[in-house]
Amino acid sequence: MPASALMNVMTNAARKASRRLIRDFNEVEQLQVSVKGPSNFVSQADLACEKTLFEELSKARQGYGFLMEEQGAVEGADKTHRWIIDPLDGTTNFLHGIPLFAISIALEREGELVAALVYNPAMDETFSAERGKGAFLNDRRIRVAGRKQLSDCVAVTGIPHRGKSGHEQFLSEQRVIMRQVAGVRRTGSAALDLAWTAAGRFDAFWERNLQAWDVAAGILLVREAGGMVTDLEDGNAMLQNGDILAANAPIHKAMLKVLNEAN
Predict the structure, then answer these.
(1) Confidence of residue 40 (pLDDT cuts 50, 70, 90)
(2) Of 256, 229, 231, which Cα lies nearest the Cα of 242?
(3) Cβ neighbours of residue 18 closer than 8 Å, sequence gap 6 or more
């Protein structure tokens, strides 16, 4: 399926921004790093990547607003469109030379997610989706996994690191989930967790206390790949409350039941 003009804009911006990431990833020991908070680092590559994304997307779609991890909200003249951007999801992986990190770009139109791109430059994998047009990995159509029993599933999650709240709740949920599934994984990138769930590599993803830029693109990817995405109350407030569960329909229902039992 030929890429639309919008998807070409997003892909070109991500690829241009990724050049700095790859250069610095290959020289990770010499990165200039500043501490933003406990276990939460910002590299010069991260900041430069966001600047490139902002410039390229602003040039291609003038007047659109932005919500970005580093710069925060930037209001645009066009109040109906907003880019939601994470320039480097998986920063700790990046700084440790682990090739699991991604650029995440989503576009909202009148509050609805309409386009999404998650790009892992280390693996040259581009996950993309537009509302109503399906989800793709590079040029191949992707679908969520078809497993129907939790006992056959591999679930992925994020672990709250030092300085974040929710450790006890996570441990409670982990105890009940690990008894039910074939395996639990932790990659360190929510954007990739959702993209890989969309591609059927993982059967389910859940996490709490995320930011909108961590999950916006991945939400549309999973939905366009035939999956379900809700918050952990089975609602649609993922971008607002930061809690998320993604899977196919039967696994989503089963995971929600187990997680509710844990709490």
Answers:
(1) low
(2) 231
(3) 49, 103, 119, 121
Lowest mean pLDDT among 18-27, 53-62, 75-84, 213-222: 18-27
Opening angle at CA 72, ends 247 and 80, nearest 5: 75
The Cα–Cα gap between 6 and 24 comes to 28
Cα 148 off chain centre by? 24
Kind and range of the H or E run holding 222: helix 212-224
pLDDT (average), residues 86-111: 95
Residue with tokens 């994470």: 86
Question: Which strand (E) or helix (H) includes residue 246?
Answer: strand 244-247
Which pLDDT does position 37 carry in this prediction? 64
pLDDT tens for each residue of 166-184: 788 888 999 999 999 999 9
Contacting residues for 29 by C-beta, under 8 A, at least 6 apart: none
With a cut of 80, say whether residue 105 has pLDDT above it: yes
What one-character-per-residue DSSP string does 69-123 give? TTTEEE--SEEEEEEEEEEEE-HHHHHTT-S--EEEEEEEETTEEEEEEEEETTT
Tell me how crowded residue 127 is: count the other CB atoms within 10 A of its CB: 27
CA distance 168 to 140: 40
Smallest CA-to-CA distance from 192 within 114, 259, 125, 255 is with 125
Q: Is the pTM above the cut of 0.70?
A: yes
The count of residues in the chain is 263
Domains of the chain by range and CATH? 5-142 (3.30.540.10), 150-262 (3.40.190.80)
What does the angle CA 103 – CA 108 – CA 112 come to, to the nearest 5 degrees? 130
